[in-house]
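Quick one, tokens below:
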């Protein structure tokens, strides 16, 4: 992922941070005050300047100002851009998966080098043939529903087979994802002297 350009920060050091304006939805779309960003130039800018701080707050660097991002779920959203290619919402190809999980709502989460990512729900049907049962068979709809029920109980018997990798699919609760992966879903302005 390219490093955002923070060079403008030196000229205007006292610009306040911005909260509550920008969000990232579960399909990887940027939203400003609830409205989907459709201007390609603005989307490209947001993608280039997307970063996080040491506290797990995600933001877009806008010159000297940090515009903090409210996350509908995870800081990264994955999409299948080809049958065997995953990309993040900022257009970076994912070359490595480090883990997989399913939550109690049936969302598929993938650990990638930059953090935890949600697979866009539109791409889940295309990735279903990669989910296998313990006996090696491809999971059918009934097996997937059973895995979702197992996730509610804290267990999963699925394996994700992707590019020669066989990743056990852990069961996770959605409410535990942010803390478990160290990110802040809704950054808040801190009192003076406290970390953001």
């Amino acid at each position: 992922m390219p490093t955002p350009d923070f060079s403008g920060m030196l000229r205007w050091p006292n610009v306040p941070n911005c909260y509550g304006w920008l969000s990232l939805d579960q399909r990887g779309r940027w939203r400003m005050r609830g409205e989907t960003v459709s201007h390609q130039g603005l989307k490209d800018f947001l993608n280039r300047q997307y970063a996080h701080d040491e506290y797990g707050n995600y933001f877009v660097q806008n010159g000297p100002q940090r515009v903090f991002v409210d996350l509908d779920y995870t800081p990264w959203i994955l999409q299948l851009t080809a049958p065997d290619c995953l990309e993040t919402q900022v257009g970076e190809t994912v070359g490595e998966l480090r883990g997989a999980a399913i939550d109690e709502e049936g969302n598929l989460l993938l650990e990638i080098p930059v953090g935890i990512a949600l697979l866009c729900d539109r791409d889940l049907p295309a990735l279903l043939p990669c989910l296998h049962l313990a006996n090696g068979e491809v999971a059918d709809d009934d097996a997937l529903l059973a895995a979702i029920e197992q996730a509610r109980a804290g267990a999963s018997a699925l394996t994700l087979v992707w590019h020669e990798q066989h990743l056990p699919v852990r069961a996770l609760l959605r409410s535990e994802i942010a803390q478990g992966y160290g990110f802040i879903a809704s950054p808040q302005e801190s009192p003076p002297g406290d970390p953001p």
